[in-house]
Design goal:
binds S-adenosylmethionine, 22% strand, ten-stranded mixed sheet, alpha/beta, 28 strands
Length: 687
């Protein structure tokens, strides 16, 4: 029963809650008087409060100084990383068709670059659209984490220099534990990425972060800050190896963690995962007619266990098929009415033990009345998939385990995705420390498995976004010798190979299941030529729907020349028509990509490239039509103005041209007038 408060609401706390929705990381706690516990000891009370310095930092474009004590995890560089998280980057993505697979049709993305920049670049297009993020960042073990040198370094510290530069010529360093900022650098690196990544999550989105004991305590604290303590779901303990560790001095660590947070716990539904195949085989051995559907079922004793409290109303007799009245030894689990209903629906199994006594069991069906398979709750311990599985799998794909150290097993990711997606078949999964792209592999496998279990051949349509630094492989490494100059090269090749393998397996399974007409009277799904010729996999109807492609994009400087970021200069130079504001090496596809990102359109949208000609014999213009009429863009310098009418006929929501395509203001007004007349809803933008 709710108690009347008899006072007006506490507006301050309400306002704090509102601010917490926007900036969970600025919430701290302060003392709020004291109470006495049951033994009369004084106990301090705490309440939520705003960390105004952090809030000021959230709202400021410069570094805010402060030195107050409060409850929070602090480290040198924390506010600077928040400032960085809120500052725009003038980078963009450039498509790379040559390295992509099925560029025109795929909805998956592989993005090469520093993940902080990529997360910033994706802010508009993927704001609140990602259902699941999985990351497996460097665990900060002493040599697994590299970072840019943003600080002045002493001579000794330069020894940590890798001799590697990023794409801007900035030096990259390895974070060794001789570095005085060992934990701080790692925390700043994680903090700024998590702050930006949170914005990409859907309200019911979930983030899974792999980590081990080196930083789990610190990671938990910064995640509590970034996502809000109340949005923490649980840690998953992953038992990653069976034993060994004879060389360990004290304890043999067999496990690591996956921290699970959501964006907004009140938007997240209960989590369920499908039953595992071996559990189905083991328990659902019997089959019968259930609401007209033949259904596998498992049984549970109807006799109550000893631990149940004695209840007289559960001691009634039940009539067996031969008319015997069966009494419980102690009592039944169900009441009379429930048993009666179950009997009518044939949901109680009667069998006899060796002495000929009746044994009654309730039936639990695998599928519900609509054919949907029963689900189960995921456990917080994963102990049936090991690191070794990931290594073996990698050998299977590359014939060489030494190309990438300790890839996660794709089955592990498969399981996490099942938990995170809650049977959604059409969601975006982002991994921004993608390494060998295990996550992409698991997404494709899950999509393929949906098809084999369904008689209609329906495939899952979960989409992945992989982000990976083009971190150079060591010239003396096996990977380098095998031709993989960067980890991104390994990741892309992994997806190509894994995709092909999944298609092949699917084709084999499909023929086994449907290929032989005479076996089960089923219609042959594939023609003989198709089943014969599995080399041409794309011709098979189910497989065609399975997306094993990916569009490759690479981070680069903005397409526009720096000078054009100053509006005064933009006007003078552009109006004079002296030079183009676009860098000379940029292609129309580059420009289109930046336009998609600036306008907040997803990079996976279908793009049609067309040459439009106003009449025969006239020069045409290349136009890009994005998702029917979401956007039409033309980046040619000489646009034939008759083409404007054709573009307007498409009734696009947005059109984009280059500023340099217009000779003068008269041209611009002309175009605006035409669109006002022919397609008044269209928003016109120039680059
Ligand atoms: C532990 S591995 C991930 C392994 C992956 N889960 C797998 O199964 O293969 C971490 C990866 O993050 C990459 N990485 C580190 N810093 C990065 C950054 N700033 N941006 C993008 N990738 C980064 C590293 O190159 C490395 O491949």
């Amino acid at each position: 029963m709710e108690k009347l408060k008899m006072q007006t609401p506490d507006r301050t706390q309400e306002n704090i809650e509102r601010i917490a929705q926007l900036f969970p990381n600025v919430i701290t706690e302060i003392e709020d008087g004291a109470t006495k516990d049951t033994k009369g000891h004084e106990k301090k009370r705490y309440k939520k409060a705003i960390d105004f310095d952090l809030l000021r930092q959230q709202l400021s474009g410069v570094l805010v100084e402060d030195d107050n004590e409060r409850y929070r995890l602090d480290w040198p560089g924390k506010k600077a990383s928040l400032l960085k998280a809120n500052t725009p980057v003038d980078k963009t993505l450039r498509p790379c068709r040559e390295e992509s697979v099925n560029f025109d049709t795929t909805e998956n993305l592989y993005i090469e670059g520093d993940n902080f920049e990529v997360l910033k670049i994706l802010q508009e297009s993927y704001l609140g659209k990602i259902k699941m993020i999985y990351i497996d960042p460097p665990y900060n073990t002493g040599n697994d984490f590299i970072y840019k040198d943003d600080f002045k370094k002493s001579k000794e510290e330069y020894e940590e220099e890798l001799g590697v530069e990023d794409e801007d010529g900035g030096k990259l360093f390895r974070n060794t534990d001789s570095n005085g900022r060992f934990h701080s650098d790692w925390l700043s690196m994680m903090y700024e990425r998590l702050v930006v990544a949170r914005d990409l999550l859907r309200d019911d989105g979930v983030i899974f972060i792999s980590i081990d004991d080196n930083e789990v305590h610190n990671l938990r604290k910064i995640c509590d800050e970034v996502f809000g303590e109340e949005n923490f779901i649980d840690p998953i303990i992953w038992k990653k190896r069976y034993g060994g560790g004879a060389k360990e001095k004290y304890l043999v660590a067999l496990h690591e963690y996956v921290l699970v947070y959501t964006k907004n716990i009140s938007s997240l539904n209960e989590l369920f995962i499908p039953l595992k195949d071996d559990a189905i085989d083991r328990y659902y051995k019997n089959k019968d007619e259930h609401f007209g559907v033949k259904g596998p079922y498992r049984t549970h004793p109807l006799e109550a266990m000893k631990s149940f409290d004695v209840r007289e109303n559960l001691k009634f007799p039940i009539k067996a098929p031969n008319g015997d009245l069966v009494y419980p030894k102690r009592q039944w689990r169900w009441g009379e009415e429930r048993v009666e209903n179950a009997l009518q629906r044939n949901e109680i199994e009667f069998s006899k033990d060796n002495q000929g006594n009746w044994i009654l069991s309730s039936k639990q069906y695998l599928n519900d009345e609509s054919g949907e398979m029963r689900k189960t709750k995921p456990f917080s311990i994963i102990d049936d998939i090991y690191t070794q599985h990931g290594t073996n799998e990698f050998v299977g794909i590359f014939n060489d385990a030494k190309i990438f150290d300790f890839p996660k097993p794709s089955k592990f990711l498969y399981k996490l995705i099942q938990i995170g997606l809650n049977s959604e078949k059409d969601a975006i999964i982002l991994d921004f420390f993608s390494g060998s792209a295990t996550t992409a592999h698991a997404v494709m496998q899950l999509n393929a498995d949906a098809s084999t279990s369904s008689a209609t051949g329906e495939v899952g349509n979960r989409k992945f976004i992989m982000v990976q630094l083009p971190e150079q492989t060591d010239p003396s490494s096996e990977a380098y010798k095998a031709g993989y100059k960067t980890i991104a090269d390994i990741g892309k090749e992994r997806i190509r190979r894994a995709g092909k393998k999944i298609l092949e397996e699917l084709a084999t399974k499909s023929t086994k299941k449907h290929g032989k007409k005479e076996d089960d009277n089923q219609e042959n799904l594939f023609s003989e030529a198709e089943t014969e010729n599995f080399r041409d996999l794309s011709c098979l109807s189910w497989q065609k729907n399975l997306d094993i492609g990916f569009r490759v994009y690479k981070v680069d400087s903005s397409n526009t020349k720096d000078i054009f970021y100053h509006p005064t200069e933009l006007q003078q130079t552009a109006l004079a028509g002296l030079i183009s504001n676009i860098k000379e090496d940029r292609t129309p596809e580059d420009l289109l990509t930046q336009v998609l990102l600036d306008l907040g359109l997803e990079l996976s949208l279908p793009i049609e490239k067309k040459i439009l000609r106003p009449g025969s014999g006239t020069n045409g213009n290349t136009v890009f039509i994005v998702q029917t009429n979401a956007l039409v863009a033309c980046f040619d310098n000489d646009i034939n103005f008759k083409i404007m009418d054709e573009i307007a006929d498409l009734q696009p929501l947005k059109v984009v041209f280059k500023d340099a395509s217009f000779k003068d203001d008269k041209d611009r007004i002309n175009v605006e007038e035409r669109f006002k007349r022919l397609s008044p809803e269209t928003r016109i933008t120039v680059l």
